[in-house]
Amino acid sequence: MKVMVVDDHDLIRKGIILLLGNYQDIEVTADAGDGNEALVLAMQTEPDVVLMDISMPNGLDGFTTTRQLLLQQPNIKVVLLTMHDEEAYIRKAIQSGAHGYILKKSQGSELYEAIYHVYHGRCYYNTDLSEAQIEKMMKEKEKPISPLTLREQEVLRLNVLGYTNKEIAEKLHISAKTVENHKANIMNKLGLKQKHEMIQYGIKNYFSDIH
Predict the structure, then answer these.
(1) Which residues sit opposite 31 in a β-bridge?
(2) pTM exceeds 0.90
(3) pLDDT digits 0-9 by tens, 57-77
(4) Which residue, of 37, 46, 74, 161, is most buried by count of CB atoms within 10 Å of its CB?
């Protein structure tokens, strides 16, 4: 199992790598200090599983990095590693698409178990919340509340269909500048940087009927 470790604290990152070195079936192929570096290294090394800290600098926290990483490389499994056990954090982890969630206070054997589970296609949420609470959040994810306004969804749909800014403006009876503003808001809300990521997100999350 090829694993990448992402944490902005060098000592913690090295400690995790040292711990994983005890398992013969795990190979740490890369480690990163922030989300931007993680996205680049993931493309270069193609890990099976990414261990991701939630609290990171430079504008990309673990949730946002997870969303972008899964857009970029859908086959990767992500386990979020954190000190936070509050329901709000776990809910955000599920909404981001993370396959696992484990507390930093966990034993090394639990970290291995999390990697093993997600690698084999299962979810692993090791928290103090009950299994019923986790399952409820998982079901809610199937019908997520859109972070986008109805107008932003309209702009996104037309963009996915290949309309230019001018054509979208004419169709929605707004200015081309307003269309640009809507697109900027969409990318900001979703934590995206590239326009092609916005289109991929739109197809996956809103308009799966578009081929």
Answers:
(1) 5
(2) no
(3) 777 888 889 988 988 888 899
(4) 37
